[in-house]
Specification:
Radius of gyration: 18 Å
Strand order of the largest sheet: 6-7-8-3-9-10
Bound molecules: adenosine-5'-triphosphate, magnesium ion
Number of strands: 10
Strand content: 25-35%
Helix content: 25-40%
Shape: globular
Length: about 250
């Protein structure tokens, strides 16, 4: 597919009509400022944005435009400097660290470009790790982790350590780890950035499958081809929303 066709189809998505759908997460006038000795950086400026249930949103923008910062804020990993965040209708701006961690553990799964698997744990143990923090019993953890590995087609690699897995397999284990707590929201920061084209397609296919099963998925990417698979696209530039497509057809 040529770049022009891809960009045209992205423009069509930006024109889609608004329809009603439950809001999963809402950002109101959110700004994020990082303070450094050398000066302050305004990474996000006055962001107003709604993420809907069952959305498949892609975040595009140049390097340094604030994509990862926005993903961290959506994932309740980092507090905004200004503004408010609502998650499932609850104002989470004032929640304690403990309450935020609990909400994250139950509702949000993260996938990163560099996989972030623990090298000393095998695939099954890596996937089961989030359940330890939720005080799930040992037997249950193993069963749920195996189920999640089956979901990504990797049950046969459950005893492999990260160094014994290919890049694509490592990312599938990371997806299984994101899924194991049955979150409603999956956030992925350049999940195909370290993979070849074929593996990238497989990972994208997996995220699409999860979205079709009802999960809300947000993918940060530099690749317009990947962004084009989403049903909405948000462009960031210099920490501001340059454009945001309206909600597409209901699934
Ligand atoms: N912890 C931090 N401390 C200070 N400045 C930061 C920090 N994290 C990010 N920044 C700055 O905030 C801005 C946005 O960074 P962010 O990582 O969100 O960009 P990005 O769009 O994800 O970029 P990339 O595509 O390169 O990953 C950048 O100018 C960056 O230098
Ligand atoms: Mg980034």
């Amino acid at each position: 597919m040529s770049e022009t066709i891809i960009l045209n189809s992205i423009e069509k998505k930006l024109e889609r009509p608004q329809i009603s759908s439950p809001i999963l997460c809402e950002l109101i006038a959110v700004s994020k400022e990082y303070s450094l000795d050398s000066g302050n950086v305004m990474a996000l400026k006055d962001i107003h944005f709604r993420l809907y249930e069952k959305d498949f949103l892609s975040i595009l923008g140049p390097s340094g435009s604030g994509k990862s910062t926005l993903l961290h804020i959506l994932g309740l990993l980092s507090n905004p400097s200004k503004g408010r965040i609502f998650f499932k209708g609850q104002d989470v701006s004032c929640l304690s660290e403990w309450a935020l961690a609990r909400l994250r553990g139950q509702k949000i799964g993260f996938v990163f470009q560099a996989f972030h698997l623990l090298p000393s744990l095998n695939a099954l143990e890596n996937v089961a790790l989030p359940l330890i923090y939720q005080r799930v019993s040992g037997g249950q953890r193993k069963r749920k982790a195996l189920e999640a590995l089956e979901k990504v087609g990797l049950a046969r690699r459950s005893h492999h350590f990260p160094r014994q897995l290919s890049g694509g397999e490592s990312q599938r284990v990371a997806i299984a780890r994101a899924l194991v707590s049955q979150p409603s929201l999956i956030l992925a920061d350049e999940p195909t950035g370290n993979l070849d084209t074929q593996m990238g397609k497989e990972i994208l296919g997996m995220l699409k499958m999860l979205n079709e099963e009802g999960k809300t998925v947000v993918v940060v990417t530099h690749d317009v081809r990947i962004a084009n698979e989403a049903n909405r696209i948000l462009f960031l530039k210099d920490g501001k929303v340059e454009s945001l497509s309206s909600r597409g057809e209901a699934r």
